[in-house]
Design a protein that fits this description.
215 residues, two-stranded antiparallel sheet, 2 strands, globular
Length: 215
């Protein structure tokens, strides 16, 4: 395959631009929703799991679909942009919570208690997301270069098998080590890995629903 070359914007049909924008926005939104969900620890099937785990696995498939639309170079840009947006979101939430409330309405302490997580949780989530995304994109590119348009399902499986453990390990280590018992962290690791792999196996076929504009 030839080296990926940027396509002049004037040569891209309008409907393809819309598809690219939609794919990028969907990925960013899924990550934001997942990080907000991670602010609460749930108990599912007897195991501790952060709420974001219920949605975050979908971002792996969304990123693979995005890769097909815009290519690895722009995917890396979207990953960085997503991390910046997440930092900005929680910084804005922190600022709003610290500003004086209207006492006629009340102290509104619930806003800060619910939406301001520990600093480690925010940093852990963003670093884990960024590192896992880069690993996933690198692994996806290896399979793409080796097989071209063939075995597209393998792109999702191979990249997910590498990025899911990286994401889970980094997030738990940064966000919860020394804060919650190791036994609970072990439960969260098992639950996270199980849910993420299950979602990947259920959704990997969706890679064929999107036409590859970069090959």
């Amino acid at each position: 395959m030839t080296k990926e070359q940027p396509m002049p914007t004037e040569m891209i049909p309008a409907h393809k631009v819309r598809e690219m924008i939609a794919a990028a926005v969907a990925f960013v939104a899924l990550v934001i929703f997942s990080n907000l969900g991670s602010l609460r620890i749930l108990t599912l099937a007897g195991l501790a799991v952060d709420g974001g785990t219920l949605l975050y696995p979908v971002t792996f498939t969304a990123r693979d679909l995005l890769h097909k639309k815009i290519g690895a170079r722009l995917v890396r840009f979207v990953i960085i942009l997503t991390a910046v947006i997440n930092l900005a979101l929680f910084a804005f939430v922190w600022l709003i919570a610290k500003l004086p409330p209207d006492l006629e309405v009340g102290l509104q302490l619930e806003y800060g208690l619910v939406l301001i997580p520990g600093f480690r949780l925010v940093v852990g989530s963003i670093i884990a997301m960024a590192m896992a995304d880069f690993v996933d994109t690198f692994a996806y590119s290896i399979i793409q270069r080796k097989y071209g348009k063939r075995h597209q399902w393998l792109r999702v499986i191979f990249s997910g098998c590498l990025s899911i453990p990286v994401d889970t390990t980094i997030f738990l280590a940064i966000a919860f080590a020394g804060w919650i018992p190791l036994a609970v962290m072990g439960e969260m690791f098992i639950a996270n890995i199980t849910v993420k792999f299950a979602v990947m196996l259920l959704s990997f076929g969706s890679i064929y629903l999107v036409k590859d504009d970069r090959e």
